[in-house]
Design brief:
Blueprint lengths: L3 E7 L3 E6 H7 L1 E4 L6 H12 L4 E6 L7 H5 L2 E4 L4 H14 L3 E4 L5 H16 L9 E5 L15 H17 L5 E7 L7 H4 L4 E4 L5 H10 L17 E6 L3 E9 L23 H6 L3 H5 L14 H17 L11 H16 L9 H14 L9 H13 L3 H4 L2 H10 L4 H15 L7 H8 L4 H13 L4 E4 L5 E5 L4 E2 L10 H9 L1
Parallel strand pairs: 3-8, 3-9, 4-6, 4-7, 5-6, 7-8
Antiparallel strand pairs: 1-2, 1-11, 9-10, 10-11, 12-13, 13-14
Helix pairs in contact: 4-5, 5-6, 12-13, 12-14, 14-17, 16-17, 18-19
C-alpha cells in the first residue's frame, strides 16, 4: 500500500509528498542548526504518518510528549532501570503501541544508556513482532557521537552500537530510522551513511555545508545556499521524496512543543526590597535537596595511558582478525554498476545533461540498488560514462582493436572520450561514420559545427584521418588501428534517436 505523507509545499512544484512505504525501507537524515525547524519537521512527519504506522520517538528534551494528547502516544519515562526499559520495548513491539521515550531530566550518560536499552529491546524483539516501526531520534549526535566526549567510553560504545543497529540492520526487523542532528560533523559517519533520504536545513559552518552538499550530490559552490535557508525551509533528496534536490517548506503542525524559542518580555517592576527577596531562604527550599553532579574523575597519568595502550595492542594481536563486514563480490558489484549505467543512459535527455548532473543521478540510483562498497569517484564515473555512451557488444569489447582504442582514448580529456570511442566502434564494426548530429549529441550540444571542429581536433592530434568519397560521404580512418568506417552522410539524422525509436 502506497501512502503519500504531505510534508508541505515545494517551490514551484505544488505539494511536497513523502512516500511512507519507501521511507520505511530507506531511512531519513535531517540536519539543521538550532532554530532551523528540525523539530517542527519531525513533528509534521509524525503527525501525518501517525494513522498509518507505529512510531517510537527518542526524545531527549521532552518536546514530543504532547503527541500523547492528540494522537494517543504512550509516554515512557526513562527514569527506570535499563532492564526494565528493555522489557518495555519488547512489549511495545508486541502490542504495536506508539510511544515517546522521555529522557528529560537525565544527564548525558544516563540518556545514552537509557536510549541504548530501549532501542536494543526493540531490535531484539521476536521475529513474530517485526512489524514496521518509524523510529525517530532527535538530537542524534548525542547518541551516535563522532568522537569521545565527557561520557564514559562504555556508555558511548553501547549507545553508538544501538544507533548503528537501528540504521544498518534495523530495516529487516521493520525498524525505520529517522535521525535529526544539528551538525553532521558531530554525527558518526557509519550512522549517517546508511540514510538514503536527506532533508538539509540552515547551517553555517563550512564543514557541515560541505558534507550536506556532498550527500545531496551538489557542487561546493552550491553549498552556500544552506546559509540562506529560512526557518522551516529544507532541501530534500532521496527515493522517498525526490530524485533531484528539491527545496520544500514544511507545513503547519497540530500539536506544539512544551518548550518554545525565547521571546523578549518586559522586566517586572522592581520590588520594594529586592535584597530581602533574594537573600532570605524560603522554608520550602529546605525540603528540596540540592542535587550536584559528582566531579569528573582525575585524568589518567602518562604511565597508566602507556600501560593501557600496551595492553590493548597485545589483546589485538592475540585475537584472530575477523572482518566486520561481509566480503564484497566484485563481479556482482561491477554488474550492478553496469546495470545502473544502462538505466542512466536510457534517459532520453541524458545526452544533454552535464557530467555533474549525471553523477548525482548515478549516486542516487546506486543507493536505491544498494550497491555494496563505496560508489565510484567522479573520475572513474567519467570513464564509465564514456564507455556507456558507446555500449559496444561483447565481441567488439573482446577484440584487440577495441582495447587499443580504449588506450588511445585515455590520452584525451573526459568530455571527448565518448565521441572518440563511438567513431572507433563504427570503424571496428565497419559501420557508417556517425553524422554531425550524432557526434553533437554525444558531445552534449546541439551545434553540428562544434561536432565538425571536434573531428578536426582529433585529426590534428593524429588519431584519425577524415576523407570523403565521390558521393561526399565521410570516412574516418584510424591509422593506429588499421581500420576505417564505412561511408556515412555527415548531414544525416541523429543515429541515437533512430536507435531509440527502433527499440521503442
Amino acid at each position: 500500500m502506497q501512502v503519500a505523507i504531505d510534508m508541505g509545499e515545494s517551490r514551484g512544484a505544488g505539494a511536497a509528498h513523502m512516500d511512507l512505504e519507501e521511507l520505511l525501507a530507506t531511512r531519513l537524515l535531517v540536519q539543521g542548526n538550532s532554530g532551523s525547524g528540525k523539530s517542527h519537521l519531525l513533528r509534521r512527519l509524525l503527525e501525518q504518518s501517525a494513522p498509518w504506522v507505529q512510531q517510537c520517538v527518542i526524545d531527549p528534551e521532552g518536546d514530543f510528549v504532547t503527541l500523547a494528547d492528540k494522537f494517543g502516544h504512550l509516554v515512557v519515562d526513562a527514569t527506570r532501570s535499563e532492564a526494565e526499559l528493555t522489557r518495555i520495548a519488547n512489549r511495545v513491539r508486541q502490542h504495536r503501541v506508539s510511544v515517546v521515550v522521555n529522557l528529560e531530566g537525565l544527564d548525558a550518560e544516563q540518556q545514552m544508556r537509557a536510549a541504548a536499552a530501549f532501542l536494543g529491546g526493540m531490535f531484539d524483539a521476536d521475529r513474530d513482532y517485526w512489524y514496521p516501526v518509524l523510529v525517530v531520534v532527535d538530537e542524534a549526535q548525542l547518541f551516535a557521537p563522532a568522537a569521545a566526549g565527557e561520557v564514559s567510553d562504555e556508555a558511548r560504545k553501547v549507545s553508538l552500537g544501538a544507533m548503528t543497529n537501528l540504521m544498518c540492520r534495523g530495516r529487516k526487523r521493520g525498524l525505520a530510522g529517522v535521525i535529526a542532528t544539528q551538525r553532521l560533523a558531530k554525527l558518526a559517519k557509519n550512522v549517517a551513511a546508511e540514510a538514503s533520504n536527506f532533508l538539509m536545513g540552515r547551517t553555517f559552518l563550512d564543514i557541515d555545508m560541505a558534507r550536506a552538499a556532498d550527500l545531496l550530490g551538489m557542487d561546493r559552490r552550491q553549498a552556500e545556499q544552506f546559509r540562506d535557508l529560512a526557518r522551516g525551509h529544507f532541501v530534500a533528496l532521496g527515493p522517498a521524496v525526490s530524485r533531484r534536490p528539491l527545496p520544500i517548506v514544511i507545513g503547519p503542525v497540530e500539536t506544539s512543543a512544551r518548550s518554545t524559542s525565547p521571546k523578549l518580555t518586559p522586566l517586572p517592576e522592581a520590588p520594594a526590597d529586592a535584597a530581602d527577596l533574594i537573600f532570605t531562604m524560603d522554608p520550602e527550599e529546605l525540603a528540596r535537596p540540592v542535587v550536584r553532579r559528582p566531579p569528573p574523575p582525575p585524568p589518567p597519568s602518562t604511565t597508566e595511558l602507556l600501560a593501557q595502550v600496551t595492553r590493548a595492542r597485545a589483546e589485538r594481536e592475540a585475537e584472530t582478525p575477523v572482518s566486520l563486514f561481509p566480503e564484497i563480490d566484485e563481479a556482482e558489484r561491477e554488474e550492478t554498476i553496469k546495470t545502473v549505467m544502462t538505466e542512466l543512459m536510457s534517459d532520453p535527455d541524458a545526452g544533454f545533461r552535464n557530467t555533474a548532473q549525471l553523477y548525482q543521478d548515478f549516486l542516487v540510483r546506486c543507493r536505491i540498488r544498494r550497491v555494496p562498497g563505496e560508489p565510484p569517484p567522479l573520475p572513474a564515473f567519467k570513464r564509465l560514462l564514456a564507455v556507456a555512451r558507446v555500449a559496444p557488444d561483447e565481441e567488439t569489447v573482446a577484440s584487440d582493436g577495441w582495447q587499443q582504442a580504449m588506450t588511445l582514448s585515455e590520452t584525451l580529456t573526459d568530455d571527448v572520450q565518448g565521441v572518440f570511442l563511438v567513431v572507433a566502434q563504427a570503424a571496428l564494426t565497419d559501420a557508417p561514420c556517425p553524422s554531425d548530429a550524432t557526434i553533437a549529441r554525444l558531445y552534449g550540444t546541439h551545434s553540428t559545427s562544434r561536432a565538425r571542429r571536434l573531428l578536426t581536433w582529433f585529426e590534428e592530434r593524429g588519431l584519425i584521418v577524415i576523407r570523403t568519397d565521390f558521393r561526399n560521404q565521410r570516412i574516418a580512418a584510424f591509422p593506429d588501428l588499421g581500420v576505417e568506417t564505412a561511408p556515412g552522410d555527415p548531414n544525416g539524422p541523429d543515429m541515437l534517436d533512430d536507435q531509440r525509436g527502433a527499440a521503442e
